Amino acid sequence: MELRHLVTFKTIVDKGGFKKAADQLGYAQSSVTNHIKDLEVEFNQPLFDRLGKKVILTNFGKQFYPYAVKILDIYTEVKEKANSCNEPTGNLTIGASEALTSCRLPQILLEYKERYPEVNLSITSIDYQNVPLELQQGNIDLALVLKKNDWTERDLHSEKIKQESMVLITPLKDKQKGNSKTVLYTERTCTYKSLFDDYLTEHPIEIEGSVDFGSIEPIKQCVMNGLGISMLPYFNVKKELENKLFNGEIIKDDQYAISTFVAYHKDKWVSPAMESMIHLIQSYSKYWD
Q1: How many CB atoms lie under 10 A from the CB of residue 218?
Q2: Which of 7, 37, 68, 137 is 20 to 30 Å from 74 at the Cα level?
Q3: What are the distances in angstroms from CA 156 to CA 134, 255, 275?
Q4: Residue 68 in contact with residue 3, Cβ under 8 Å?
Q5: pTM, rounded to two decimals
Q6: Is 137:161 a contact under the CB 8 Å cutoff?
């Protein structure tokens, strides 16, 4: 078994097909096919079912995939240890929630790139529900996410960086209209959507209908223009509150608080690039509102 065969196998799974994997890796499609045939011969088990133009992992293929990822991670670990001499280098992929990407990460990334120019950074938006899977499959190295205060995952190392306050935002009096009682939600898979639901259940707020949004900025604009009410993290609406663009009530009950977490897979080697990013996030978090 050769490492390039494992790379080919993982790329087929990640990209969803032999041709896409060949294009990604710069191989002829026949080479990709031969790599998989070599693995299948070695294990005496098929890895994919070929259904027309579609390929699907067999049961054995599904079992083998995590091992292939782990072997490649170990190889990367050894290679980086040999090459880096403990200096942050190589690739670092961070999965982060939209709220943190827009308000917390920019300054951190700027300083990180100034300190460690040899690290190739990649930032990807991530659904908090997919964090364990994305880390397990090696799609991201590090996650920076908003979760409920008691968040734990069996296969992850997670560290609470800061507890965050939530704010109930409502239109200014002169912007209030007949539809100002509409509830404006972030997408339903968002970690604090359920907190908002719990808050509405426990508090006597008259509401009439709801609207779901895929990101935070449209919600803020809609509240400014009198469409309805919402609940968002304080750090996402701090500037608007200071500029009195809408009203805000900080929710002081910890029942409705969330926290920023840094997480990585428990079996993941913490490279110098990862370690230096975690330390920088910890340093910045001391000054977060």
Answers
A1: 14
A2: 37
A3: 11, 24, 16
A4: no
A5: 0.69
A6: no
